[in-house]
Amino acid sequence: MGRRLGGGAVVLSVLLVGLLAGGLYAVAWAFAADRLPRGTTVAGVPLGGLAPAAARDRLEKEFAGHDRVAVTVAGATETFTAAQLGLHFDAAATVEEAGGGRSLDPRRLWDYYAGADEVAPVVEVDESALDQVVDGLEERHGRAPGEGAVRFVGGRAKAVPARVGLGLDRDATRAAIEAAYVAGEGATLPLTDVQPTIGDEEVTAALAEFARPAMSAPVTLVFDTQEVRLRPAQFAPALALVPKDGALVPQVDATRLKAAVDARLGDAGTPVDATVRLVHGVPRVVPGKPGVGYDPKDVTGPFLDVLTKSGAERRLAVQATVAKPQVTTAEARKWGIREKVSTFTTYYPHTDYRNINIPRALSLIDGTVLAPGETFSLNDTVGERTKANGFVEGYVIDGGEITTALGGGVSQVATTTFNAAFFAGLKDVQHKPHSLYFDRYPVGREATVAWPYVDLKFQNDTPYGILIETHVQKSTPSSSGVVTVSMWSTKFWDISATTSGRYNVVEPGSRVSKAPDCEPQEPNTGFDIDVYRHFRRNGEEVRVEKMHTHYDSADKVTCTSP
Fold it and tell me: What are the chain's domains?
């Protein structure tokens, strides 16, 4: 009878089996170490059994030759670097993904001995850089779709047919470029049809539903008793059909529509200020006119709805307001401009430039009306003396010497206008005498001007309006020019002037100039003088104003340069 094994023997046997199995596992693990599974390949590169470092080296060497990718679109080939395409191969991540590295996990040991198949390489993609390349390829080799549209030309609606474009399928293109980079090959990208957002069907609908009805007849706007009739050609520039949610939607340009309406309103739309003009030598009040005002929203808001209607329904009532003129007829009558209250005349020697500049300046001043309290500025009224403003070069005084500048001779106008204002009793705000005295001007009572700072200004400080009238008789080689400026109003002051004797007299010297731009100059005596303006009302002197003027002396200049 045999002996049965006791419990201790059984345990010992199990331990022995376990130790044997563990030893075998340790041997298998030690042999596999951290090598990649047998049969592993990446992009066709064999890596089975290689240590991770060796596998990385092999992959990096292989992919170094993949740095450039030739891309062909519509028969044209362009080459890009991997960096331009935003592609970067990560060898370390790829080796790790393929199973490289030590692990006690039995599954890892099984993979090594059982073998592995092709492993996809780990490629990092900069989507922005890749999209930029694809955008450029599509722009250079594709064709944008032509959107269907409706244009309004000459009061008619014109259809613009849609056109199918050619482009790149973004997902397929990106996948093809990545695959070409991994394989180290070129990529051929097909162009596919790109449909427009607005097709011919949407264009046909927009023509039938809006464009043709809109251009079918005029639209009448009713401003109380004033009517404005807009023809299609007149309001068409304010219309547009714009894409929105796959359809063409009508829009109206408020600014252009208002311009079309205002152009038809004409004088009725703009208020006209009352004024005073000389009619056959007599001052007459020209009545002011109210204008028609309206809120542009009252037109642009319902305008599109009216365009789809027909017949009598193509009328739009607009709430009108009366736009009053700034100067009413009643105010102009209160100015009391009835009679000539002053006039002054000066004479000038013949020169062609004076016969241009003086009449031009006078024409800009003629008809100026000053309400009580208003100030006249010659520079503001005449404007800068430029060729565009009608002025030519002539002689002026600059720094005590004679030179040339645009607008020479306008000081003749300033002096004449100053004296007319002086004897009308108007307030002297700003005037500057010439630095040298010319005997064709009243001594101590003259003015010069220069843009923009030297100005002639006077204020109408009387209770009546002032109308300025100018007149010129051009000079000839045998006769002087004549400049006359008159002030029309209601007589408020009786003005007279007295003048002191000359004092602080400085006699001129003489000098010779060799300068190539020398201008010969006659001598001028320098002196001081005072002018007194006497204000009288009803025969009694109310006040006296003193005006002091200093004139420089000027040497006789003889030019020796040819």
Answer: 17-140 (no CATH), 203-332 (3.10.20), 335-559 (no CATH)
